[in-house]
Amino acid sequence: MDKLVSYTIKTVHKAYREKMLTPTSFIDLSLQKAKQTNELNAFVTLTEDEAENHAIESEKRFYIDKNTKSLDGISIGIKDNFCTSSIVTTCASDMLKNFVPTYDATVYSRLRNAGACLIGKCNLDEFAMGSGTVDSLFGPTRNPWGYTKDRWRITGGSSGGSAVAVTSGACVAAIGSDTGGSTRNPAALCGVVGLKPTYGLVSRYGLIPLVNSMDVPGILARTVEDAITILNTIAGPDVLDSTTFKEPFNPIELGDIDLGRVRIGIPKEYHCQGMSKEIIETWSYVIDLLEKEKVKMKSVSLPNTSVSIAVYSILNQCEVASNMARYDGVEFGLRTKEDSSTEELYASTRLKGFNNVVRSRILAGNYFLLTKNYQNYYIKALQLRRLIHDDFKNVFNGENAVDLLLTPTTLSDAPLFEEFTSKNNRDQCAYQDYCTQPANMAGIPAVSIPICLSKNNLPLSLQLMGPRLSEALMMNVAKHIESIVKFPALNYP
Amino acid sequence: MKLIKLYHQFNYKSRLASSCRFSTVSNKKWQSVVGLEVHAQLNTETKLFSGAQNVFGGVVNNCVSLFDAAIPGTLPVLNRKCVELGIMTALALSCKVNEVSTFDRKHYFYADLPAGYQITQQKAPLASDGSIDFQVFTPGVHKKPYRKRSKIKQIQLEQDSGKSLHDAELKRSLVDLNRAGAPLMELVFEPDLEDGEEAAALVKELVLIVQRLGACTGRMEEGALRVDANVSLRRPGDPLSTRTEIKNIGSVRGVAGAIRHEIERQRAILNNGGRIINETRAWDAIARVTIPMRDKEVVQDYRYMPEPNLPPLRVNLTTKDDHNDILSVLLIQDKLPVLPEESRKQLIQEFQLRPETAIQLVNEPVLLEYFQKLTTDNKRSSNKVANLLINDLLTVLNKRKLDVDDCPITVKQLKELTDMHLSKDITLDVCRKVLDELIALSDSDISPLKVVHEKGWILTSNEDDIKKLCVEVLENNPKLVKQYKEGKIKVFKALMGILFKNSQNKVDMAVASRIMEGLLKNDK
Fold first, then answer.
1. Whole-number Å distance between alpha carbons of B299 and B301
2. Where is the Amidase domain (chain A) (predicted)?
């Protein structure tokens, strides 16, 4: 079996110490894998030179300086909406096709400081607007599970490239972003762990924004433990992002926890229309499993869940309209040759630079923000967001409080490309993000864990959510589930 | 104070009856209403949300951080110093500092606005409900100062835009982002002024206050303080009617001129049965008219939205605990300097200066500093020192078209010169000449005494010398002497004039007058 698809940070480091592998040889293998799986279209840019240089530095620290860093020689992928100095950062958009930032996103610079080696920049839906990684300037990313040239499944999105980079063996871990489920959704469909940390725990500096008030850098990894190692590297205050917590971050430790003292809620509203039978069975399977482990399971209610997706959609479009205003062809990015007037330059640049999804969200967002509509849409949406936030607060506090919530991540296993693209982007997002976006609305942490394979031999995953900054408990429980279900690694030809 | 005001209004009306220069009351049908919005650049090392340098006149596009150019992925980080200066100004203007204020995005597309929105404080400003008290006194316009108060609606922090340069010939626009993201505080005043002179006086007082605070350089010529004026006319007792807005007026006299012109313009339209349209106008300082700005044909909807990347700005109103995230307003209050109005009171009470003199001194911080230094260490007559500064130094500087701020004369030189004048070693006329010479030389090492000696300007008060000169005048002008003796005492003035001329202004005229009179009387 292909070892590359099952290596973890620990096993790679063990191999380095035992000299079964060296950072340069492993990074070489990782790059080869990325090239071999080229047809999956996980990467927008392969950063071979960087990867090799990073590996040489790691190798020196490993064997000469004997001063190893926590992620030395670990292959990583970064979603192409995080700025990387001197490396093109496209957001999978014509607008930024040739945009080369002069600075590093905090997440990337922290990973680099810990010794991680960059394999490449990962594909996404244009400006992370999507839930399939099909709306990219560079074409769709393909799910390696059940892949054939003529019949393949979508990866989920918008961090589909990052998920595939991890599943396929090109990277041990990858960074995605999560605004409404963009990390957890592809993690679920590609069979990897997808962690969305608490809003404010990880710096957004250098992440090209979709919705500033919901965006969180996400982590895709093969194991819960690896996700935590990455989180411990990237989390913590950042003076460059005023929305990060000011308190110092204490690294999270995974250990044995007394499951008998953990209370997990099953929100009934997540049992929604359109949810596949297999997903519901998987959900029940894990509920039973946890009950056997003496976890206190109970049914809870988050009454405002059903409006969440509509509220999310309005807030998303408003912030998109605002955030996209800077793409005018003046300071950076695409500029058309139109020179009859400044206004014409803006219009033609934005028409050519943005795809239909981006343009329609800008249009809708600007409509909602008009003085005459502001109260009826934007303010109303904010008020509902507060109610959704309070739903979570209520289940996590008080007499009948639970510590965590267990829900499906997606409503089904990965759909075929043809199935998925028969619906438009907006309907797909409304459907695919149903279980994931409430956590973004509330700013709480959530993790998707692969559980088992469907009849189609595709990953089925569940999601844990917890109150703000409950990553330690949430990930410990996730690890327990992971150790029981023993989800298999990908068997890709 | 009320008395003065009544007097003023009376005076105003009587003058207006003859000339049509002022609009407020010349036509009783219309009452003019003026409200100001002032943008003051905060005098900080770095910009409002970025680490880029905040300087005027830097090399084009050289003080621009990634954030200022709206490079994707960058985020704003609030500059604590800006908050401090904003609060300081708010306190100096008796505003209520808000415990929590927030930032909003104001959207519009413009080439010198890289993000496509400006970060401002529309909904919950830094401070609100203040007022500014000021004296309205323009020498040559008002005979006496009168007090006026304007209410402040709010003070908010916001970003400045960059600058666009349009090259019509080559059909291209150039953008300089040095100013983009520079910290501004916008002060919104209620429409409670009546004319341009009041508005100009308000602006002048505001400049003095922000300069005292060190919050803003106040250099209007550099655009550090820019004024927008809302002007409308109504019938007394009616609600406010349609207004026009004059944008970006760049000098104190410009404020007075622009508003005066706009009131005249509106009144002419209304008197002809026309209608005022709500529009934005610009002040053409050379043609001295307001002209419509053409880019406002479409009503802008700024699509305000809360700035999601900045948490609410909190301040501590109750204790003197100060830490990185939350500033103590009480600590800032303690740091407030003496404000201009207090200075004027001090000058009037401690130095017995006339109100007009106090106003003029405080209006020129450099002169005030000279005054303070010249009156603290010595018993120089405060009134004479003040007069010398206002009448003589200022006149000399004006003649040379030199800004008071650039006056090269040192305190030491000024002290020496003043003492020579006060002890009657030189005449006032010579004193002015020396001032002029000192400015021309611009050399802090040169002693005024040396200048006087070198130029032979020293005043003769030696009685023998003066007597000799007097005798000479009497001998050479027997006709005048005869007339005097016949009772035509008026010719004394003529004799003194001749003496003054002969001596090249260098005799102490008081002594000379006594001696001359003695000689004429003895001669009887």
1. 7
2. 30-473
Chain B nearest-CA distance from A375, in A, is 11
Nearest to B309 among A243, A325, A326 (CB): A243
B104 CB neighbours in chain A (<8 A) are: none
H/E stretch holding B203 reads helix B196-213
Is residue A107 a contact partner of residue A234, using CB atoms and an 8 Å limit? yes
b/e sequence B53-81, b meaning 16+ C-beta within 10 Å: bbeeeeeeeebbbbbbbbbbbbbbbbbeb
Contact between chains at B305 and A369 (C-beta distance less than 8 A): yes
State how far the alpha carbon of A264 is from the alpha carbons of A254, A408, A409, B281, in Å: 19, 14, 16, 65
The closest of A411, A395, A366, A399 to A470, measured between CA atoms, is A395
Residues of B in contact with A245 (CB under 8 A): none
pLDDT tens, position by position, B230-286: 999 999 989 999 999 999 999 999 999 999 999 999 999 999 999 999 989 999 989
Low-confidence ranges of chain B (pLDDT < 70): 1-28, 294-298, 378, 523-524
Q: What is the spatial distance between Cα B176 and Cα B162, in angstroms, rounded to a whole number?
A: 6
Q: Closest to B111 (Cβ–Cβ): which among A99, A326, A342?
A: A342
Tell me how close the Cα of B78 comes to any Cα of chain A, in angstroms. Answer: 8
Residue A209 at interface with chain B, using a CB cutoff of 8 Å:
yes
Q: Phi/psi at A86 (nearest 5 deg)?
A: 65, 5
Q: Which residues touch B379 (CB under 8 Å, ≥6 apart)?
A: none
> Quick one: which of B397, B377, B400, B375 has its CA closest to B385?
B375
A91: left (phi over 0), alpha (psi -120 to 50) or beta: left
A158 given a catalytic annotation: yes
In three state form, how does the secondary structure of B20-32 look? CCCCCCCCCCCEE
The dihedral over CA atoms of B393, B399, B403, B407, expressed in degrees to the nearest 10, equals: -40
In angstroms, the CA B272 to CA B261 distance is 17
Tell me how far apart the alpha carbons of residues B73 and A82 are, in angstroms, rounded to a whole number. 8
DSSP string, B260-290: HHHHHHHHHHHHTT------EEEEETTTTEE
Of A103, A105, A342, the CB nearest to B173: A342
**Catalytic annotation on A35?**
no
Rg for chain B, CA atoms, rounded: 29
Contact list, B75 vs chain A (CB under 8 Å): 204-205, 240-242
Interface test with A, best of B64, B71, B118, B174 (most A CBs within 10 A): B71
A207-261 pLDDT tens trace: 999 999 999 999 999 999 999 999 999 999 999 999 999 999 999 999 989 999 9
Helix or strand or coil: residue B149?
strand
Reported residue count of chain A is 493
Supply the pTM of this predicted model. Answer: 0.89
Distance, CA of B132 to CA of B134 (rounded, Å): 6
Catalytic, A182? Answer yes
What is the spatial distance between Cα A217 and Cα B309, in angstroms, rounded to a whole number?
15
- Record: contact B114-A239, CB cut-off 8 A: no
Name the residue facing A346 among B66, B109, B305 (closest C-beta): B109
d(CA B467, CA B199): 57
Tokens of A126: 């244009």
Q: What is the ipTM of this complex?
A: 0.96
